[in-house]
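Notebook entry, cofactor series.
This is the third protein in the set we're modelling with a bound small molecule. For this one the ligand is 2-acetamido-2-deoxy-beta-D-glucopyranose. I'm keeping the input format identical across the series so the outputs can be compared line by line later. Sequence and SMILES below, as received.
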Amino acid sequence: MTSPSTFVATKNMAMVFLLSSCLLLAASAGNFYQDFDITWGDGRAKILNNGQRLTLSLDKTSGSGFKSKKQYLFGKIDMQLKLVPGNSAGTVTAYYLSSLGSAHDEIDFEFLGNLSGDPYILHTNVFTQGKGNREQQFYLWFDPTKDFHTYSILWNPQAIIFSVEGTPIREFKNLESKGIPFPKKQPMLIYSSLWNADDWATRGGLVKTDWSQAPFTASYRNFNARACVWSTGSSSCSSNNSSGYSWLTESLDATGQEKIKWVQKNYMIYNYCTDIKRFPQGFPPECSLS
Ligand SMILES: *[C@@H]1O[C@H](CO)[C@@H](O)[C@H](O)[C@H]1NC(C)=O
Ligand SMILES: *[C@@H]1O[C@H](CO)[C@@H](O)[C@H](O)[C@H]1NC(C)=O
Ligand SMILES: *[C@@H]1O[C@H](CO)[C@@H](O)[C@H](O)[C@H]1NC(C)=O
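Returned structure with ligand:
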C-alpha cells in the first residue's frame, strides 16, 4: 500500500536518482582513455589502471605528451600531478590549455625541475591572440614530487584563475573594456608534455639534465572538468551541481583575494609586472589595472 507520504518519498528518491546520474554524466571524473589522446613519445606516455592514471616519461631520445580529445570554451579544470622526483634538473613538465591556429590563446602551467632537494619553479603565462610575455613564477609550499597535488584552471568570461591545492595563485581578469584582449572566442584543448629544456629550465640553464637518472616520469590522475565543450560551432556546458553552473560566474571573493596576496607575498619569485629592465618604456597595461 502506498500512502501519500511514501509516494512523495519515492518520487523524491527518483528525482535524486535522476539528478545523481546527470551529475555523474556531467562531471564524469577522469578516465584518461575517454578524455585524452597520447600524441607523441613513442610509448613513453602510458595510460594505466583502467584509465585512472597516466604517466609521461622522458629519456635521452625523447619526451612524451598527450592532449584532450575535446575542445573547451570556458571551464573549471582540475588535474592532479605528481612531478618528476629526485634530480629533475633540466626537465620541464608543461600542463596547459591552448587554442589551435595563429593568434592563439593559451593558459600555462610549467613545472621547472631542479636538483634533489632544491625547489621546483611553477611558471605561469597567459597568451591572448598570440601575445604572451605575461610570466609569473612561484615556489610551492610543499614538495610536488612526494604526492599528487591538484592544479586548477578556472576560465570563465570574467577571469582566468590559476589555483594550486584550491589556493588561488594568480588571476588574469577580463579587462576587454580597457582594451586588453581576453580569451573568450577560441576553444582550447588541454595539453601536457614532459621534455628536456636544460638550456634554460634550471637556474637559467646552468644545471643540465643528468641522463644517468633517466627515465624521468611524471604522473597524472583525477582529471575533472566542469566545462563547456565545443563541438562543430556550438558549446554545451556541464555542472556537477543541480543548482547549475556556478563556476561560470565564480570570481575571487575576499578570502580568495587574501590567499592570492599571501601566495604572491611569500612564494612569487618573478612577476613581469615588476620587471623594470624588461619594460623600460612602461609595463603592459593590465599591470596597472589588475
Ligand atoms: C563538484 O564541485 C565542487 C565545488 O566546485 C568540487 O569541490 C567537487 O569536487 C565537484 N565534484 C565532482 C564529482 O566533480
Ligand atoms: C633550483 O634551486 C636553486 C637553488 O635553490 C634556485 O635558485 C632555483 O630557483 C630553483 N629552481 C629552478 C627551476 O631553477
Ligand atoms: C551547488 O551550487 C550552489 C550555487 O553555487 C551552491 O550554493 C551549493 O552549495 C552547491 N551544492 C553542492 C552540492 O555543491
